[in-house]
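**Archive record**
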Amino acid sequence: MKKTTRLYIIGAGFAGQTLAREIKAKAILGTVVAFLDDDPKKIGTRIEGIPVLGPVRDVASLLRTTSADEAIIAIPSASRETLSELYATLKNAGFRRIRILPGISQIVEGNAHLIQTRFIDPQDLLGRTPALINLKESLAYLRGKRVLVTGAGGSIGSELCRQLLSGGASRLYLFGHGENSIYLIDRELRLLQEEGVGEKATIVPVIGDLKDRNYMFYILERLKADVIFNTAAYKHVPMMEENPVAAIENNLFGTKNLIDAAKASGVKRFVHITTDKAVDPVSVYGVSKYLCEKLVLSAATENHFERSFMAVRFGNVLGSRGSIMLLFQKQIEKGGPVTVTHPDMKRWFMTIPEACSLVLKAGGVGENSSLYLLDMGEPVLIRDLAEQMIRFYGFEPDRDIRIEYTGIRPGERLDERLWADDEEPVPTGFNRILKVRSGAGFQSRIDVEGLIERLYPIIRFDPGQKEKYRNNAFLKELLRDAIPSFGIPKQKALQNDQKVLAPAV
């Protein structure tokens, strides 16, 4: 940011005032010209020597903004509707640079920091208003504990780590096999700490692979982790259909290695992240996560009273690295077309920060041997999401940017389900966290350990069964025999593909 940057802070409350003081102390960041606020009691006054102008909608249109001017929306409790209105107002006023503070649930005890701001993007304006969660209170169970996050460089894992900074953990282990992604989140967390965000947990990056069973036992014995959040997984459905052995090896066998090592090293609490695609799974990815759910809940039944093993299930998240939003963004930037698989395809969506806040809450209040479900609200048509994103970037769908329907891909279905026929979501007493009550036969529906034994020759080379090694066809045959839903969707997908005609105009 140039020293000549003129900053307008939208919101003259505690967050805006905190930012103004920080910007004043760091003069090289620019100058706060004014607060913009709708509160009649503040309009016309001066706070920190800075004039408060308003109402926002009226005064913004009077500003003579330049390309160097920047607006910072400092209203962490704002609803999606309010943010959308503010964004439109500021864009119409000529602001090209608009930043935003994270939601109120991520600002602990009123401590807002400039380093937490980021440029606004579509995920801030789409979907419902996130749940308000007292992060400090939710993370009390982690105070003084050693916490390990697998997949710490991923979208969910990295956001968990950002929020965990405020939990008072003694050590935060960033576990992942991607050197660059772990390096990036490690540096980001240290910078956040330097700027006063969170508490002084010792951050320890750990490069490793869940597929390496011996290493997992070795490293967990030495790290002495009290709590594990397992977010590591291959997640891209069509890609995993092309690489099914890799999906099962990484997701299922990797999770088994982690669970076994966690039990051997005395981990007290294990929180596994799962997905709606695990419900009556039709893709290899979904099957792998379905089997992981069973492994976690099975491990919980072996537990002694000091341990809690649980799983938290939710749908898609907005803005993840594999998110369709990023694909849409790239397609819009090049002028289209924006590709949607089917005009009737729906998905549940939640922002990454909200999902992570709820996971951390569930990890504290959750009981052993329990499967939890995050309340995802209403499903969203992917077509509608594409149209909203096109408008976010200032274009009109099918006039400026064309939407093209490409057909359902292998492993996909039109609708996802959040629970199976023999499952029932029941309230927990905690906002947007449900407990999945299972019918008779849930745990015995499939012999996971027996299936894993049959899968071993595919994953590990056996000279006596070399024809099975990395054999995709044999793998899928075993999975279809064990999980009936896995063999169903191909005909349906073909039928749906045949229904997709030219894009609607």
